[in-house]
């Protein structure tokens, strides 16, 4: 490169590190005001939780005991009903045995009554030789020893005697019959026949008697057998009845015992039920206490989360891809924000954009609060406005001012003039300006200070009273006795404080977005309303402070107030800070000197920004500045981690350049990828500009794979200065090689533009 006066402030930020670190440190400092409340709520919650756990344990113990008693009751109930069933069965068996005994007794009686004449016998009525068995009454049994021995009478011996007698007689008769058949003496036929007839008759009689004895024996044996069977059946039935009665008595005892156990189990169940009811009531009370403690804790925790979300939003706002501002065209649009108390200490600060080339020079930016609409300015609570040139030029029809200044006035009810009136030093606005008013209470007097871009321009003490008003504060509009005046330009980061701000506080915070809960911040407007979100409310500007004093936009339909890219934290010119040195590059083809800075991992969030100075009339247009990081030497640009370089426009002959633009590219070509398949992961082209001195360029790539390139804080042509790719395709190259900047470095004194600029020496 040749002829490049190059102020370089390279910031490689993992998600915008310096501004974010500031916000995070603010978060760490500001959280102390909730720490005690959070600790108390947490302690109360833990105590309530411990009590709840204790009560839950007690309740669960009671529940287990009650369940055990319930199970015991059910077992006792089951046993009782089983015992009742068993007892009923035993009763039925006993009744059956009663019936069986009655039947056996009846059978025995029937067996005894089935012989004629036996019904009247009794032990006392028996006579000697009479047997109780009716069929044996014709036989002598011998004398009975006593009335009770009648049942032992037996006629079997008699029957045996008759059988022997009849058998002997039959044998004799048969012998006679034989002799008659074969007589030894000669007898007459008549004698033999008569004798034979008699003998045959006698044999028949004896045979009949013998048969009668056997028949009587059979009848007697059958009767005795029947009688014995009836007697055995009666004895068995009697034994069964006795057993059934014993089993019935045992079942009754078991039933009564089961009933006693059931009643005891019921009493235990009712007792444990009462204990459980008390335990549940105590537990419910502990649950209510815990829920209340939990709700309190969650409420405090919710505040923490809101603060965290606020920090996230702040960090997002600090990402150059997030910041917006309000743009007014001076044709009827304005913003109202709720009033605040400005009669004690206070501070008002804001970034305001005004470019005499692009903005309407007849409608200059203004912030004001009137006491009554249409009154004189000395009746206003305050008026802060940009004014142009001397009053004669201001009144001219075509105000082509050579310089501008900021004017601040506060009216007073005790004075025909103003309580305080201040003007800044003359300025030449060319974009963003930071304006701050701080009023400090010094006892009987107040001290007002006027800051432009963090530098003190005016200070004045005063003691006069000041107006107060219920009317809103208006931005880009005021209505005095001369009519309604509208302002043009942009506004960003409007902050109103219930206390003074020191120069250090203003300078330390003017370049960063806040989270909104710093003290004593009264109202804070970031103008970052995202109109794509569902919670967006049209024409409402959110107050990010704890007061939630939201603002309201007003504009004619034909000239709406617009949200546009801010770029305030990448602003150049009047947003600059001073540094002693810058680098001047004057490279030639023979002298290839350059600067190396250590490598940085660009696979995550990062920002690269720097200030530069290039003059088309002075500097070498054939050697334009560039910054790059390669993977290795001798590769194409598609294989570079990134290349960022300045280009002339229109392309071609350097002597015909009228505008210039910056480009940024990130390679997407791995070592093994063929060159014909190589491309760029990100390829951005910044807005064109006329290089007439110092400028600022910034590239930011966020975690959601969105990249921007800002030229002097702007990205107007978003089709070229913005790029977004799917996160899964965001596979960036990584290199350990240094980042290279410029050629043939020498040292030259200059202004460093950009609040993160650092001096070089060489």
How would you characterize the overall build of this protein?
- This protein has 7 helices and 31 strands.
- The chain has helices at residues 17-30, 32-113, 156-181, 189-318, 391-394, 503-509, 718-721; strands at residues 4-6, 324-329, 334-337, 346-354, 366-370, 380-388, 404-411, 418-423, 431-441, 446-452, 455-462, 473-475, 477-480, 483-486, 488-497, 521-525, 540-541, 551-554, 562-565, 581-585, 595-597, 606-615, 626-630, 640-649, 659-667, 680-685, 692-701, 706-711, 722-724, 739-741, 745-749.
- The strands form 6 sheets. Strands 2, 4, 9, 10, 11, 15, 16 and 19 form an 8-stranded antiparallel beta sheet that branches.
- The protein is α+β, with helices and mostly antiparallel strands.
Brief rundown of the structure:
This protein is α+β, with helices and mostly antiparallel strands.
Query: What percent of residues are in strands?
Result: 15-25%
Average pLDDT rating: 78
* Overall body shape: elongated
Rg value: 64 Å
Major pleated sheet: 8 strands, antiparallel
- Helix run count: 7
**Helicity, in percent?**
25-40%
Structural class: alpha+beta
Q: Helix and strand layout, with pairings?
A:
Layout: E1 4-6, H1 17-30, H2 32-113, H3 156-181, H4 189-318, E2 324-329, E3 334-337, E4 346-354, E5 366-370, E6 380-388, H5 391-394, E7 404-411, E8 418-423, E9 431-441, E10 446-452, E11 455-462, E12 473-475, E13 477-480, E14 483-486, E15 488-497, H6 503-509, E16 521-525, E17 540-541, E18 551-554, E19 562-565, E20 581-585, E21 595-597, E22 606-615, E23 626-630, E24 640-649, E25 659-667, E26 680-685, E27 692-701, E28 706-711, H7 718-721, E29 722-724, E30 739-741, E31 745-749
Antiparallel strand pairs: 1-20, 2-15, 2-19, 3-12, 3-18, 4-9, 4-15, 5-6, 5-12, 6-7, 7-8, 9-10, 10-11, 13-14, 15-16, 17-18, 20-31, 21-30, 22-27, 23-24, 23-30, 24-25, 25-26, 27-28, 28-29
């Amino acid at each position: 490169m040749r002829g490049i006066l190059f102020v370089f402030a390279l910031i490689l930020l993992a998600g915008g590190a310096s501004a974010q670190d500031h916000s995070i440190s603010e978060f760490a400092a500001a959280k102390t005001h909730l720490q005690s409340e959070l600790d108390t709520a947490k302690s109360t919650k833990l105590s309530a939780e411990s009590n709840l756990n204790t009560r839950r344990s007690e309740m669960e113990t009671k529940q287990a005991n009650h369940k055990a008693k319930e199970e015991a009751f059910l077992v006792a109930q089951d046993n009782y009903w089983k015992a009742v069933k068993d007892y009923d069965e035993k009763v039925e068996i006993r009744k059956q045995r009663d019936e069986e005994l009655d039947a056996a007794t009846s059978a025995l009686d029937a067996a005894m009554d089935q012989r004629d004449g036996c019904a009247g016998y009794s032990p006392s009525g028996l006579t000697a030789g009479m047997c109780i068995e009716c069929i044996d009454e014709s036989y002598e049994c011998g004398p009975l020893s006593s009335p009770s021995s009648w049942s032992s009478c037996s006629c079997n011996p008699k029957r045996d005697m008759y059988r022997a007698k009849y058998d002997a007689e039959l044998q004799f008769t048969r012998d006679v019959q034989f002799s008659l058949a074969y007589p030894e003496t000669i007898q007459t036929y008549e004698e033999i026949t008569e004798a034979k007839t008699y003998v045959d008759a006698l044999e028949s009689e004896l045979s009949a008697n013998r048969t009668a004895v056997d028949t009587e024996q059979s009848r007697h044996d059958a009767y005795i057998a029947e009688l014995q069977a009836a007697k055995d059946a009666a004895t068995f039935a009697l034994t069964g009845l006795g057993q059934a009665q014993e089993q019935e008595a045992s079942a009754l005892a078991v039933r009564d015992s089961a009933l006693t156990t059931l009643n005891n189990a019921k009493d235990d169940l009712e007792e444990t039920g009462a204990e459980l009811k008390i335990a549940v009531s105590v537990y419910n009370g502990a649950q209510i206490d815990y829920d209340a403690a939990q709700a309190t804790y969650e409420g405090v925790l919710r505040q923490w989360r809101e603060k965290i979300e606020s920090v996230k939003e702040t960090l997002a706002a600090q990402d150059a891809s997030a910041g917006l501002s309000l743009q007014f065209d001076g044709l009827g649009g304005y913003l109202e924000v709720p009033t605040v108390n400005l009669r004690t200490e206070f501070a008002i600060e804001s970034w305001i954009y005004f470019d005499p080339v692009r903005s309407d020079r007849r409608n200059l930016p203004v912030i004001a609060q009137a006491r009554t609409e249409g009154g004189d300015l000395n009746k206003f609570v305050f008026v802060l406005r940009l004014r142009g040139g001397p009053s004669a030029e201001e009144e001219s029809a075509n105000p082509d001012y050579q310089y501008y200044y900021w004017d601040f006035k506060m009216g007073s009810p005790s004075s025909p003039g103003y309580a305080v009136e201040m003007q800044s030093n003359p300025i030449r606005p060319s974009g963003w300006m930071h304006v701050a008013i701080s009023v400090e209470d010094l006892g009987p007097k107040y001290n007002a200070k006027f800051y432009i871009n963090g530098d003190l321009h005016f200070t004045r003490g005063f003691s006069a009273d000041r107006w107060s008003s219920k009317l809103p504060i208006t931005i880009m509009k005021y209505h005095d006795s001369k009519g309604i005046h509208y302002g043009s330009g942009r506004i960003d980061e409007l902050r109103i404080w219930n206390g003074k701000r020191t120069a250090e506080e203003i300078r330390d915070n003017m370049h960063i977005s806040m989270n909104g809960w710093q003290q004593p911040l009264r109202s804070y407007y970031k103008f970052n309303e995202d109109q794509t979100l569902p919670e967006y409310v049209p024409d409402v500007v959110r107050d990010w402070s704890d007061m939630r004093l939201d603002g309201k936009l007003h504009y004619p339909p034909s000239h709406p107030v617009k949200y546009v890219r801010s770029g305030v934290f990448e602003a150049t010119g009047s947003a600059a800070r001073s540094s002693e040195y810058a680098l001047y590059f004057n490279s030639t083809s023979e002298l290839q000197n350059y600067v190396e800075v250590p490598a940085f991992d660009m696979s995550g969030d990062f920002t690269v920004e720097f200030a530069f100075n290039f003059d088309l009339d002075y500097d070498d247009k054939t050697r334009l500045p560039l910054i790059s990081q390669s993977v290795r030497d001798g590769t194409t640009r598609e294989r570079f981690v990134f290349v960022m370089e300045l280009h002339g426009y229109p392309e071609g002959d350097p002597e015909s350049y009228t505008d210039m633009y910056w480009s940024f590219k990130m390679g997407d070509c791995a070592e093994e990828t063929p060159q014909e398949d190589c491309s760029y992961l990100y390829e951005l082209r910044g807005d064109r500009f006329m290089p007439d001195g110092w400028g600022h360029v910034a590239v930011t790539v966020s975690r959601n794979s969105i990249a921007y390139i800002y030229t002097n804080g702007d990205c107007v042509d978003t089709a070229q200065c913005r790029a977004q790719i799917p996160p899964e395709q965001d596979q960036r190259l990584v290199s350990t090689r240094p980042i290279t900047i410029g050629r043939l470095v020498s040292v030259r004194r200059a202004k460093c533009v950009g609040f993160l600029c650092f001096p070089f020496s060489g």
